[in-house]
Write a structure and sequence with these properties.
One of its GO terms (molecular function) is DNA binding. Its main location: nucleus. It is found in: Nucleus. Helices cover about 60% and strands about 0% of the residues. The chain has about 325 residues and is mainly α. Helix 1 packs across helix 10, helix 4 crosses helix 5 and helix 4 runs parallel beside helix 7. The two termini are about 35 Å apart. The chain binds a DNA duplex (21 and 21 nucleotides) through helix 3 and helix 6.
Length: about 325
DNA sequence: AACTGGTCCAACCGCTGCTTG
DNA sequence: CCAAGCAGCGGTTGGACCAGT
């Protein structure tokens, strides 16, 4: 007979999250992963509903999130993807792994909508208009189906050849994203909030029994979390975070700093790839997500930014869905 | 300095499809 | 098979912030 009720709405806290709450949530997910959101409020003592916890994690605390201004590159991708997929922000976000669907949605509503409106007002033929008009002949459901088939195919390809990514050639990047060609811009609000959290995390990591380096595989989630964050940015002797800075925090909670740092060297990229395998624990899901979109994004960029291409996205997707999926299935 | 209007974004709301017992 | 609950998604909102007057 169903499951026991989720979180009753009595005594559930709402509104902005405090750094303390963030730490509690992060530390819990470090130990237990993101599998059971329902258990999070009860096990952590957070007066939040499970939904709120999940949202906080996926939109804010999750590793690998890039914050701040959108680059031209990202902007173009969003515009094209929105024209292709509609308001399927989650699907669009899957092509921009560093951005959350909420972020993209907000950016679309606050910036791009107006921008496009303005451009259309200028009555000037542009790429966005072209993409939209090209996508119209196809039914929405059909485009969705094509995209979903395409994504499923990519996921399968990834699953079958994960090792290739880890031992890829020096030219290959851990993430498809040439987003890294663009400038990193951090918002001051997030920076300040991460500073607070990082400061609090210092205490937490000191107390945490999980920062041990015994190499035990009892919890891969813990190990990966610690290895990638504390292990690279802290003193091994005391286990504390070395820098109470936004960068320090980003690196604590994941791979963000190396991932979003556009000035990173190829060597750093390789380092990221080497450490960023699906076997690395709690962030496995995130890493998979990132890996999964590697090929599609690279291909996507071909048509997104190839002005000479007259075929457009539909041609690509049609090929993928009608041609290659036949082989797949 | 105070007010006003606009912008931005984190968080909430409500719906839907899937999962579970 | 069914009902209840969960997780995820897209739409909306509230409040902080900023620029202009």
């Amino acid at each position: 007979m169903g499951r026991p009720p989720c979180c009753d709405k009595i005594g559930v806290k709402k509104g902005p999250w405090t750094p303390e709450e963030d730490i509690i949530l992060v530390s819990y997910i470090q130990e237990h992963g993101t599998g059971n959101w329902r258990a999070v409020p009860t096990n952590t003592g957070l007066l939040r509903c499970s939904k709120s916890c999940r949202l906080r994690w996926t939109n804010y605390l999750r590793p690998g999130i890039k914050r701040g201004n959108f680059t031209d590159h990202e902007e173009k991708m969003i515009i094209h993807l929105q024209a292709l997929l509609g308001n399927r922000w989650a699907a669009i976000a899957s092509y921009l792994p560093q951005r959350t669907d909420n972020d993209i949605k907000n950016y679309w509503n606050t910036h791009l909508k107006k921008k496009l409106k303005k451009r259309q007002g200028d009555d000037e033929p542009n790429q966005e208009g072209r993409s939209v008009s090209q996508s119209i002949p196809k039914g929405q459901w059909e485009r969705r189906l094509q995209t979903d088939i395409h994504m499923a195919k990519q996921a399968l390809c990834e699953a079958l050849s994960l090792d290739k990514w880890n031992t890829s050639s020096p030219d290959s990047k851990p993430f498809p994203i040439n987003l890294s060609e663009t400038k990193p811009i951090q918002t001051s609000t997030y920076a300040s909030s991460t500073e607070n959290i990082a400061r609090l995390l210092q205490n937490w990591t000191k107390k945490s029994p999980n920062s041990s380096q015994d190499g035990s595989s009892e919890s891969t989630t813990q190990n990966s979390f610690n290895n990638r964050s504390i292990g690279t940015s802290s003193s091994p002797s005391d286990g504390t975070i070395s820098a109470a800075t936004p960068e320090g925090f980003d690196s604590f909670i994941g791979f963000n700093s190396s991932n979003s740092d556009v000035s990173q060297s190829e060597g750093e990229l390789k380092f990221t790839a080497a450490n960023f395998t699906p076997e690395t624990g709690i962030l496995q899901e995130e890493s998979k997500t990132n890996l999964d979109i590697q090929m599609p994004l690279t291909l996507l960029e071909n048509w997104l930014f190839d002005d000479a291409s007259a075929e457009g996205p539909e041609g690509y997707l049609m090929d993928m869905s009608l041609g290659e999926t036949a082989d797949l299935f």
